[in-house]
Amino acid sequence: MNKKVVLSVLSTAVVASMATAAFAKPATGLYIGGSVDKYYSITQFLNNEDQVIDEINNTGFPNVLYVDDQGNAATIGQVVNADDLNDVLKKATLEDFQGNTYAKADGTTYDPSKDSDLTGAPAGDLKVESVSAINASQIEVKFGAEVDKESAEDLANYTVSAAGVDKVAAKLVDSKTVVLTLDPTDVVTAGLNQSTVEVSVADVKSAADDSKAIESFTGKVSFLDLTVPQAVSAKLIGPGKVAVTFNEPVSATSGFLIDGGQYSVTVDTASVDYAAKTVVLNTGTLSQGEHTITVNPDGDKSVKDGAGLFVAKTDVKFTVADDVTAPVLVSATASGQNAVVLTFDEPISGLDAGDVYHTANTEAYRNTAVEEVAGSAKKQWKVTFGNPLPTGTVTINVAKEAIQDNFNNKNASVLSTTVSVVSDSVKPTVTEVKVVNASQVTLAYSEAVVGADLKANYKVTDKDGKTVTGYGISYDAATKKATITFSPALKEGAAYTIAVTGIKDTAVVPNEIDAYTTNITVADKTAPSVAGDGLYDKDTNKIVIFFSEAMNGADLLDKSKYTLATSSVQVELPSTATLAVGPNNSSVNITLPSVVKDANGTDITDAINKVIVGQVRDQAGNKTATVFSEVALDSDAGEIGVVADSAVTVDTKTVQFAVNKPLKTVVASDFKLDSTAVEFAKYENKTLKDGTYGSIVTLQVALPFATDATPAVNTVANPTSVSIYGDKFAGSTTIATSADGVAPAIADKNGDKKLDGKDLAFTFNATGDITDVTVTFSEALKQSTVSVDDFEVPGYTVADLAVNSNEVKLKLSPVVETGTSFKVNFVGNVSDAEDNAYKTAKEITVLAADYAVTSALYVVNNSTNETLDAALQNPTLALDLTTYKHLNTDQRADLGADFLDDAPYTTVDEVQDALDALVPVQALKEINWAAENGDWSGAKVSMFTAAGITGVTDANYNAVKAALENSPNKGQEEKAEVQAIVDEVNGVPAP
Fold it and tell me: At the top level of its lineage, which domain of life is listed (predicted)?
């Protein structure tokens, strides 16, 4: 940097200090830190300009502090970038002097730490105090309070308005200062030096309270780097690897010699670390002892900084010696509850998934991923665990021989250190809401969140409290910003409210955002327009002119803005005409006198066919785009058109859509929703969201359609609805297809117009206890919007759920014992595929009677031969078991096999019918077996009754037995044959 530049930078600062002679503490002047550590008064500076300029060049702007005569201080870097010096001069604090002691010209020293007039830095506000250039490739960001390391080093929180320039690292160099490093190669290509860019900072959190973040900041940074970069040192970092360190980031592909060229050397471009300001060289095997690296030797100048300035030819010495010391684990820092950052005393490699563990060296406690921390020169590594770390003090271990340094020295034993882990109990917050334009609003969150892209978690309403539905939401995890895109766009100049709920962070136990509401106003930047067609009612002498939006009332009432015209003449609006502002300031009503004459005295009242409107303003002050606009008063009637994509279902009986013409009448019988006649219709003339003056039409049918219905709006053959211009709808046409704007609802499955246990479905275990409850909705749900938190079953836990289209199955713990009444409550919000959210809390009472029969049938259907008898005798089923009870236990078991073959049974009647059919068959089987085997112990008189055979009594029982045993077809008799034998015993003649 030359003398003129420094003098130019300091000129505005020193003028005010020239009159100060007393040595106040801290004294007025320049405090040069770095490796210089000298104080110069203003006079001493002017008397030693060349020396001071050289020292400033050597130490750099950020290390030179200027103090004015009021004890205010700023670095020279801040002075360079300030539009107004007063913006950067702040009361000097001990921290400003960076721990330096300064030599004075009189041979004494000034130690700021012993200056009673200086205090420590004030706590300050959580904000960006300043941004300034350190050199062409590095920017210093100063915060007013201590900031959180993780968010401060997140590159996504910084934006530099320099196209094609990559950010490579952000390092928190002290609790309030971040150095942002840019790729010097990109900086040279972009020509950033001696230019000004905008630097934006957002979402950096407080170190004291990570629920708080800085306000978004944008400031200007001017780059003026005329300082030649310097090679500072060199060090052997591995076999055949030497790292050369510079005082600022440099780029290089060559430009190095070792020992005058005795050894070959190449630049390891993959290992260049701009943030660490190092270039790594591949040297091959070097002899032990001292060696010299020449940077930018004659004929090979390649090493340069972001300003394009080459390093001067420089010799840097280093020593080669055997390194047999293994790397050491210095510390660990928690990064949330799933990751830690490990710091080693030297660069390491080899660290991999599974190499780091806590508690025990088993899979559950091992790390699953490893990532080098940018700008750490391989000394810091972020390790992520698959399962959360326990809270409290945790010992972190690196497995034996898992890592090695560049000299292949491995850790011979397990390396351990402790880390303090705390659970995340901080709720996410909205840190910024920005209206980008009428179609886009962004919301920034304080941390990574889930659910920010779900429409169900947002509600947008206009000034009248009406819900805005036409929007979609996207979420960028890198920037932690949600973008709401409105289609159609919001109305410019209008106020809206955005409410946010349900969004959670990514903590082990997710924290849910507190309900958040903000009000926004969409800036009106669009020029208004005058509708090309107006109205002229010659019977009342009234003219109506329409505008695209609410207009300035004074302009609308200014008679000089209007000129009447016929096909041949123009006349000023008569002074006797009266003007009135129409609804919403979007129209003007002009009442003409009964006779309007031109300059020749000719009555032109009936011939007026046009109004010329001068330039008028909307309520935001935007003027119409043209100096005058022509409004036709005799336009031919045309066709009413529906605004594209405006039709939407409002509820299960109602569709609403916009048309491009204001209406005079709307007739319900002109329309059908699909094939259903419309019972009710209304309209509201208003300025539409696209700026057109038109109308909102509402149609309603008598019977409800499904919540996911998208009914077509059809017209009849000859519609009679008409616009104020005389336009009509096209006949026999589908003029619109509705979008689904209705949220799902819990279904009234049995149609009794109430929600109770009869509308739910249940899953039972073998004893009839309820294990799962299924809630059915009116349409398919978006699965990502449904969680166990949406439901409560008092006295039970919703342990899990499964979503299948419109059904949500809740698994309960413990089971609901059969015969128990309970409640199922819906307490959350769920959405359909169109993001229509259902948020209505519902309490559904389930009575034991609601599922008793279903439970009993389930037990019957899932019985075994051994358990069926008890299941059938469940009094809930109320079965007629009169004949069934004639069977003994073994016989009932035999019948059960046939009965269960036909399961499942869905009604009690089906069970009864099956028993009524099977009992006679089983009884006949027992009678035949007894006849064949002569054992009647299981076939008493009642068995004949069960088989449907009449006439067997105790008196003739033995005779019947004997007859059956002597029958030629014994053991194989059909029912009719047995009945015939009994009749014969009783002397009943054969038919």
Answer: Bacteria
Q: How far apart are CA 734 and CA 841, in angstroms?
A: 37
Determine the topology of domain 648-737 in CATH. Answer: Immunoglobulin-like (2.60.40)
Burial profile 501-522: b = 16 or more Cβ within 10 angstroms, e = fewer: bbbbbbbeebbebeeeeeebeb
- The hierarchical CATH code for the domain 128-225 is 2.60.40.1220
Strands 392-398, 415-421: parallel, antiparallel or unpaired by DSSP? antiparallel
Q: Are 622 and 528 contacting, i.e. CB atoms less than 8 angstroms apart?
A: yes
Distance CA 157, CA 46 (A): 42
Domain ranges of the chain: 1-122, 128-225, 231-320, 329-421, 430-497, 535-632, 648-737, 757-855, 863-985
Cα distance between residue 843 and residue 827, in whole Å: 9
Which pLDDT score, from 0 to 100, does residue 18 have?
A: 42
Q: Give me the CATH code for the 535-632 domain, please.
A: 2.60.40.1220
Rounded to an integer, what is the distance from CA 359 to the centroid of its chain? 35
Alpha helices by DSSP H, listed for 104-213, are: 149-152, 184-190
Q: Letter for the amino acid at 957?
A: Y
For 197-256, the DSSP string reads: EEEEE--PBBSS-TT-BPPPEEEEEE----PPP-EEEEEEEETTEEEEEESS-EE-SS-E
Burial of 740 (C-beta count, 10 Å sphere; 0-12/13-18/19+) = buried
| Buried-exposed string 480-496: b where 16+ CB fall within 10 A, e elsewhere | bbbbbebebbbbbbbeb
What angle (nearest 5°) sits at the alpha carbon of residue 661, between those of residues 659 and 667? Answer: 70
Give percent above pLDDT 90 in the chain.
Answer: 65
The gap between the terminal CA atoms of the chain, to the nearest Å, is: 134
Q: Which two tokens stand for residue 97?
A: 């002097």
With tokens 């401060």, the residue in question is 152
Q: Domain 329-421: which CATH class?
A: mainly beta
Local structure of residue 873 (DSSP, 8 states): T
Q: Is the pLDDT of residue 98 over 80?
A: no
Q: Do 535-632 and 757-855 agree at the fold level?
A: yes
How much is the pLDDT for 118? 72
Is 349 within 8 Å of 241 (Cβ atoms)?
A: no
Q: Which of 204, 230, 406, 436 is nearest to 314 (CA)?
A: 230
Give one DSSP letter per residue of 250-263, joined into a string: EE-SS-EEEGGGTB
* Cα 100 from Cα 89, distance rounded (Å): 20
